[in-house]
Write a structure and sequence with these properties.
It holds the Pfam family SURF1. By secondary structure, this protein is α+β, with helices and mostly antiparallel strands. It is built from 3 helices and 7 strands. The protein is elongated and about 85 Å long.
């Protein structure tokens, strides 16, 4: 993945084999009025409480790819849909679609608040035949102060808190064991 992100982008038409995590260049135009607001996971932005703007992009050879354009604060949700340039060349990294997980809320399609970028569901809701991957756009092609561009370098910084979680649960288990022993000893003294 690191090599793909550091290499120059290749034209999507020349891409073959495993496409995931490839850095590509593609020409086409955005499809207005079909935006998805993906609730603000902060893995690619230092900001809080917002959304990723995800918009369908129709390539010059008529394929439709969902593109993550950037991140915006929640207060701009009502006026974010009018800032997209139409025809352009974009560069980005191909990522796989997501599947709904057990402990993640269902997408609120009515209010356009998505928690999982499920490409099958997006295809149904948007009424488009989407490709089986999405693209995270590199750089600031959006020319807007509202929409913050994303750095694809952050894709390399995958957060792994498993050790912290394990230590926390271990400490809680020890604490409960100590409380259990103290409670039972105090019960014996009362008798």
């Amino acid at each position: 993945m690191k090599n793909n992100l550091n290499n120059p982008p290749i034209d999507i038409k020349t891409l073959s084999g495993n496409k995931l995590y490839a850095k590509i260049r593609v020409n086409g135009h955005f499809l207005a009025g079909k935006n998805v607001h993906l609730y603000g996971r902060r893995s690619m932005s230092t900001e809080k409480d917002g959304y990723y703007l995800v918009t369908p992009f129709q390539t010059d050879d008529n394929k439709i790819i969902l593109v993550v354009l950037g991140w915006f604060a929640g207060r701009h949700k009502k006026n974010i849909d009018n800032i997209i340039d139409n025809s352009m060349e974009i560069t980005g990294v191909i990522l796989p679609g997501e599947k709904t997980k057990l402990f993640v809320l269902d997408n609120d399609v009515k209010n356009n608040v998505w928690f999982t970028l499920d490409l099958t569901q997006a295809s149904d809701v948007l009424g488009l035949k989407l490709e089986d991957f999405y693209l995270v756009m590199e750089g600031n092609n959006n020319r807007s102060d509202i929409l913050k561009s994303l750095s694809i370098e952050n894709l390399l910084n995958v957060r792994n808190d498993h050790l912290e979680y394990a230590i926390t649960w271990f400490a809680l288990a020890i604490s409960l064991a100590v409380i259990f022993v103290i409670y039972n000893l105090s019960k014996k003294e009362i008798k």
